[in-house]
Amino acid sequence: MNGAHSLVHTLLKSGVDTCFSNPGTSEMHFVAALDQVPGMRCVLGLQENVVTGMADGYFRIAEKPACTLLHCGPGLANGLANLHNARRARSGIVNVVGDQATYHRPFDAPLTADTEGWARPVSAWVRTSTRAEDVGRDAAIAVQAARTAPGGIATLVLPSDASWDEGGLPADPLPVPPATAPDPHAVRTAARVLREGRNVLLLLGGPALREEGQRLANRILRATGAKVLAEGSNARVARGRGRMPLERVPYVADVAIKALAGFEHIILVNAKAPVGFFAYPDKPSRHYSPDAEVHVLTRFEGDAVAALQALVDELGAPDAAIPDPGPRPEPGRGAPTPEGLARTVAALMPEGAIVADESVSFGRGFYAETHAAPAHDWLHLTGGAIGDGMPLATGAAIAGQGRRVINLQADGSAMYTVQSLWTQARERLPVTTIILSNRKYQILIGEYAGVGANPGPTAMNMLDLGNPDLDWVKIANGMGVEAARATTLEACADLLAQSTSRNGPFLIELVI
Amino acid sequence: MNGAHSLVHTLLKSGVDTCFSNPGTSEMHFVAALDQVPGMRCVLGLQENVVTGMADGYFRIAEKPACTLLHCGPGLANGLANLHNARRARSGIVNVVGDQATYHRPFDAPLTADTEGWARPVSAWVRTSTRAEDVGRDAAIAVQAARTAPGGIATLVLPSDASWDEGGLPADPLPVPPATAPDPHAVRTAARVLREGRNVLLLLGGPALREEGQRLANRILRATGAKVLAEGSNARVARGRGRMPLERVPYVADVAIKALAGFEHIILVNAKAPVGFFAYPDKPSRHYSPDAEVHVLTRFEGDAVAALQALVDELGAPDAAIPDPGPRPEPGRGAPTPEGLARTVAALMPEGAIVADESVSFGRGFYAETHAAPAHDWLHLTGGAIGDGMPLATGAAIAGQGRRVINLQADGSAMYTVQSLWTQARERLPVTTIILSNRKYQILIGEYAGVGANPGPTAMNMLDLGNPDLDWVKIANGMGVEAARATTLEACADLLAQSTSRNGPFLIELVI
After folding, report:
1. What digits encode the pLDDT tens for the residues A9-47?
2. B278: nearest CB among A160, A416, A451
3. What residues in B contact A36, CB-CB < 8 Å?
4. N or C: which end of chain B has fewer CB within 10 A?
């Protein structure tokens, strides 16, 4: 058995059965092994940032890692931005990066690059398997690293000779350590703060934002009067009917500082204390009050649900119903507004939908209008590297096994990984993309105002996307995805409703 | 004056007057400075690998560096693959990468990443300017590094506070060291080998492949009977009437080994001794004979033309005319073949055209049929990281000031950086793209055969681009570029001829 076959066998034994790929010459033996060993679903992406973004979306829904197949250092490099986002989402991914044969590397052939060096900043674990005998063992360790709480990026570099040489040994799965148990001291401290403090914020991140975590957080809120917020950018938030009407820490510095000003205590549950996405002259980096005390209930690797349960027990917080969010919204009408679009989506999304949100500036108020939607999961751009929404939607649809994915997608960001549409068409995925077509980098025009000047033609040349306008219907059709344009919310609602009854993808260009 | 203004002033004083950009929040003060200080042409790319590839194409034609404007670590990461190609082309580029404010970095905000770590593998020079006072000085050093022979990638990381703080000091240009003068010993050795050896190969790379280098190489060839070849992948080769009918070292291992087998001596002129692009089981890494002696006339930083002149003088090689390549080819006819397409391009390209060649497997024989075309420059994919052709064509057109660029472009590679078309439309660039639409990764299907198996459905799912077919006319139209499909060489010739009389871009989808 060669190294490549041992790799496929090990991955499958470890429960990795989906491979997002864009292979090259040095990976041909691995491709052959995937072909010859049954069990791996292989999904092609036409650019590697699509591939890695799909793997991120897949993990967020499937709750287990997929592998990627990437070609040499530059193939990995193309996927780094969405690996950055995946790292911030704390997603588990096993990257398999084919590379030059060990003995060929010193010749510095054109595609030779510092593959490990590029992998390290986004990876929790990096290793190059230099011998076929090691590949199975290393792959099992990679999967273990990817599955270790909260989830990590494991990058296995596979020189082509380690792939084609005989001597491969499939390895058994390695045990995955459980998430860290609650620290009794941290639980008691949090309980004391909640009992005694008046202005307490319970800040939820990671698995605390899933249904069970919210159920417990709701009991704490009812028992103590604390406020509960989600981090600003989250991998996955359970939302809609039956879930808490949670809001997020606002993005805009002034708004966030105002929203957080009153809190004297912040209890972090798999979350970070809120800081600015960027610094601004004369604004603080920390968005919470300098007088606030920050308490850590759980770190990222902690078992958030167990910790919240321990806190509920310590507080003796009684059962409490999640509040009723009121009636389901009606679709919006007339010219597209953020609130109207959010209501339209809330009105028409199917039960169990997944929202992949890269709406950037347009979508900051989407939460408020969608609490009364049917139960759904909401995925955010976690690392700020734009170009994640479409690949996330695609990977989430692969993992979702029929769940409808609604991708709320800014146009400038969409262009980064527009190739995702082709994969959606090939795999006939239930993805409805709503392109928020404002034909500019609106967020940057807003930021430019903060510089204290009006943009002249040179600046606007870098901030607007008009001249020529992108025609999203043609672009989508060109990649095999049906599409239509809407200029009103009524038209958008019609298209959205139609799209959810289809089997495959559909794109709505919503001119805003 | 703030740091950003000092940066723009310094770049302009140093002769950098073109900025390929995709800015973000942390670069707004630099964008404002570009807006307020006249003189910089700013060209927006909708994804950073387009941006860096344009900068590479610009350098190859303009022979001076442009700057890029990239957003934080992930923005740089998106452009690394084409920086890898630019490094292999030995192109000079000044990357300006905006980043978190120095004091904000410790807070690990979502977009914080290891920007320097990602830059280092592709850069000859990396520095973070931590104070506004340092920005001008550092920018002058960056330009010096980019212009130092043969050309290098200089990456200047610009934290936002170094950009917005007052205290900026524009710096004067620093002297650029000349290319290394010929080594008399190397010249004498090469002359002796050429006089005494029988099977001698003069292998040209870098500036040796420009017109003057070829004129001198031709005299050496005439005087000594040596053979002359170009490296396999070159940044820029002067070709067509009045230039040598040079061939390249073949890509395919067996073909290259056969072509090089007879040479007992190889003299390198700004070139590397030929090795395989990849290793293959039971094939050597070196493609030249194990018995051959390799002699270095000049390294990459050497003055190739001066060294060739010194060699001509040492040999006393008389003036010699470049051989006449025969009549200009007629356009091909019927179904598209590589030879027929090459003849069509040779027949119809305008004098002074630039060919940006990312034709991959289809284009291996293009040289043989295009020696008798009008004088033109040919740009190759140098680093093997696909997705370079369209950005190269775009940047070359910016530098070419009206020269027609013909982009011979494989479809799978085109999808990597398809966003380039929009920039071509916005800037109304004279680029004719010929998409070689075979709807598969043909090179990989060829490589798969070497694994010794027929691809089954799982493998073909990763190697073919059909299901659905990409519709290049729609994709191009969607980005504002006129386009048409051709299935015969006659139709291709008609469209190519029409396109060269236009002002703007045009795309031909040639179904092969």
Report:
1. 999 999 999 999 999 999 999 999 999 999 999 999 999
2. A160
3. 453, 456
4. N
